[in-house]
Amino acid sequence: MSPPKNPATHSGQWQAVARNQIMPLDLALVEAQRANLSAIERRIASLPGRRTVKKQAQAAWLLKAVSCIDLTTLNGDDTPERVRRLCAKAAQPVRQDLLDAMGFTLPLSTGAVCVYHRYVSTAVSALAHTSIPVAAVSTGFPAGLSPHELKLQEIAASIAAGAREIDIVITREHVLTGNWTALYQEMCEYRQACGDAHVKAILATGDIRTLRNVAKASMVCMMAGADFIKTSTGKEGVNATLPVSLVMLRAIRAFHELTGFQVGYKPAGGVSTAKDAINYLILVNEELGRRWLEPDLFRFGASSLLADIERQLEHFVTGRYSATNRHPMG
Asked: Catalytic annotation on 266?
């Protein structure tokens, strides 16, 4: 399969996406959502056999993947210094000697840096010399069970600290009980609280049990103005998977056909290898088209993925695999 023509193109070289808007909740459309498990499994099973990329094409796809990473640290032992190192890696995600050996001269950075609210100001300061946005996880991440007013205050605090993207957690209970009106109202309030900051709605797909629930929750969050729909917090027992991704991508496609708005997609948790990244990129390209392979419409939520991509790029350049510790986060 041919690689993207410009693997590190940033969204500024494409026509800007019109931001999704809040629209009335259409419960009939929500209830009409379906997910054919056997067909989904067949589609995903066919992906590796039909799409294989090697050598220069693989390197190009991997550089594209780097530009779409939300480089993330969401650990209980995070420190300001760890966040600053992460930001340094986001600004220079691949070693310069490897880029030089590949003849790659375009600007390259990750799509964003994603941290807890406590470290937003640290990340904003560390990235002040770049155009890389800071994303903050919010609304009681990861369980999403904080009081609602505190969730809105948390969003406001992160934006005041400089976050340009907010990754919110929906209340899983609304999905599990089929209370789509409550989910819609909650998401509308999150979107309004975010103002100009883009909002990514985390569905926690491993917790909401069925692919049909995933399809319905995706549609409700998009109706409520989500700029992105995201699979997981990375803290669930099951996080991003290709079957879940297919359901969410097709919901995005259906929503685009209905409204004309392009909503972004973010798989998060469990995407840790270069091979995984290429499978996701190819699936997005096949389901939604080339425009969705830009960081304003596609992100990986990842921490360890970048190290494996850089390791694969070193193999492409030298013919040898290196140890992972040769590719630290900063």
From this structure: yes
Per-residue pLDDT tens digits for 138-179:
999 999 999 999 999 999 999 999 999 999 999 999 999 999
Alpha carbon distance 150, 80 (integer Å): 24
Is residue 13 exposed (0-12), middle (13-18) or buried (19+ Cβ within 10 Å)? exposed
Q: Which two tokens stand for residue 196?
A: 């100009």
pLDDT tier for residue 51 given thresholds of 50, 70 and 90? low
Model pTM above 0.85: yes
Looking at residue 317, what is its pLDDT? 95
Rounded to the nearest 5 degrees, what angle is found at the Cα of 270, between the Cα atoms of 305 and 216?
A: 125
**Catalytic member of 89, 200, 216, 266:** 266
Task: Clarify whether 275 is annotated catalytic.
Answer: no
Q: Within a 10 A sphere around the Cβ of 79, how many other Cβ atoms?
A: 12
Whether residue 13 is predicted with pLDDT greater than 90 in this model: the reply is no
Instruction: Give the pLDDT confidence of 74-128 residue by residue, as tens digits.
Output: 999 999 999 999 999 999 999 999 999 999 999 999 999 999 999 999 999 999 9
Question: Which one of 70, 216, 230, 296 is the catalytic residue?
Answer: 230
Residue 230 annotated in active site: yes
Beta strands in the chain (DSSP E): 69-72, 112-115, 134-137, 165-169, 198-202, 228-230, 264-266, 300-302
One of 70, 89, 151, 167 is an active-site residue; which one? 167
Q: What does residue 177 show for φ and ψ, rounded to 5 degrees?
A: -100, 0
